[in-house]
Design a protein that fits this description.
By secondary structure, this protein is of the alpha+beta class. It folds into 2 domains: 102 residues, PH-domain like (Roll); 61 residues. It is built from 4 helices and 8 strands; from the N terminus they run βααββββαβββα. A 4-stranded antiparallel beta sheet has the order 1-2-3-4, with helices on one face. A 4-stranded mixed beta sheet has the order 5-7-8-6, with helices on one face. Strand 7 and strand 8 form a beta hairpin. The mean pLDDT is 92.
Length: 185
């Protein structure tokens, strides 16, 4: 009985200081905007009976509450990780937001890959400059050993850029998952 060829990796940002700073700043601003918005709204609504209603205060309250809500929605995007799972010639890619929400991005069967290799290879530029190709930047560290994958799926051409470990790259290259001449580099 043959064993499955399985490798799972989670890619995290190496230099996380700025991302953590912006995440905590976003939380601070959520609380600040929310408190200011609620107190301004409460003060504005209390003036309705006295006849001193101010539209400007209502607009400020709505803007503050809207900013707090917008930051609440977008805050998870400040802490992003990518998960690559390779199983018997199929690469699954997911984005993990704030270590809680998982968003499935794509499944790439190595049989449909037309070209794959390091982004330093000259063949990468040919795909990079083609405007008809949909690009996916599924990596976090620009200084990592990035790999590009060019494939056609559902009639659309895609160029995915990922940062797998050398072990995963050798696993992709093994057992005939890729067609002849597909690996560049």
């Amino acid at each position: 009985m043959a064993m499955d060829n399985f490798k799972e990796e989670i890619v995290v940002r190496r230099h996380n200081g700025f991302a953590n700073f912006t995440y905590y700043l976003a939380w601070t601003m959520i609380v600040l905007f929310g408190v200011i918005g609620i107190f301004t709204l409460q003060a504005t609504l209390n003036t309705i009976g006295s006849g001193a209603f101010a539209w400007g205060s209502l607009i400020v309250a709505i803007i503050m509450i809207a900013l707090a809500a917008l930051l609440w929605i977008k805050k998870d995007g400040l802490r992003v990780e990518y998960e690559y799972t390779f199983t018997n010639g199929v690469l699954d890619i997911s984005m993990v937001l704030n270590n809680t929400k998982r968003r499935y991005l794509s499944e790439i069967n190595m049989k449909i890959v037309e070209s794959i290799g390091p982004v330093t290879h000259p063949s990468f530029n040919r795909y990079l400059n083609d405007k008809a190709i949909k690009r996916h930047n599924w990596f976090l560290n620009r200084d990592a050993n990035l790999i590009y994958i060019y494939f056609t799926k559902n009639g659309a051409r895609h160029l995915a850029i990922i940062e797998p470990s050398p072990e995963m790259v050798s696993m992709i290259n093994s057992r005939g998952y890729l067609g002849f001449g597909v690996w560049q580099g």
